[in-house]
Amino acid sequence: MSPFNGFTGRKVRLTPIPGPFFSELLPEIDHLGELKVLLYAFWRLDRMEGAYRCVRRTDFLADERFMQGLASLPESEAQSDRAMEALDDALERLVQRGVLLHVTVLNENGTESCYFLNSPKGRAAVKAVQEGKWRPFETAQVPAELAVERPNIFRLYEENIGPLTPMIAETLADAERTYPADWLEEAVRIAVEKNARSWRYIEAILRSWKEKGRDEQKQNRGDSEKDRRRYIEGEFSDFIEH
Length: 242
Hints:
The protein is mainly alpha-helical and 242 residues long. It is built from twelve helices and three strands; from the N terminus they run H-H-E-H-H-H-E-E-H-H-H-H-H-H-H. It has two domains: 19-138, Arc Repressor Mutant, subunit A, CATH 1.10.10; 153-239, Arc Repressor Mutant, subunit A (Orthogonal Bundle), CATH 1.10.10. A three-stranded antiparallel sheet has the order 1-3-2, sandwiched between helices.
């Protein structure tokens, strides 16, 4: 089991869950797969647009990270028969319990299973489908999949560079607004590899990428002696102790 590093201090998007879930459903649900699928459905539906929203069976299957965790399988087996059986079993439990409403819709490839939350809007959507007034495939689906939350710059700094001070925290907050998250992670990683654990060094890398382009810089990086000397004697030499 991988340890959870804790929730970050920055603002994150919250997923609304109806109160009756805690007062009525949570005490009754005793199947882990059923609970996982329901929580995922809440999360997915919240990230969709439009008056009518549903989660298709293929939406669950397309999220490999979710399917892997649902059946407790290695990543390479996320689309295995075992994973799909776990999904179908959980969906059937939720339909039988009355939490989700299931509608089979015809499309160009055959049929598609669509699941709506048993709420006023969900029931209205099912009625619209049954009366031929609305088809789930007429509404563009917003891509969504589970992804690992990137660590913010404050945690990266504390774990790899040193303790935070009020002054450095203000500098880091400005950097987080200025540079993409993957740039910050990569720059910190380079600083650690080069044993140049200082913000001045990291900031120099970021400025260089911003001025000259990151792709060009990445092509020139490697583990060769020439690369090592470029960092030690070249543009970043003022930031390395050697």
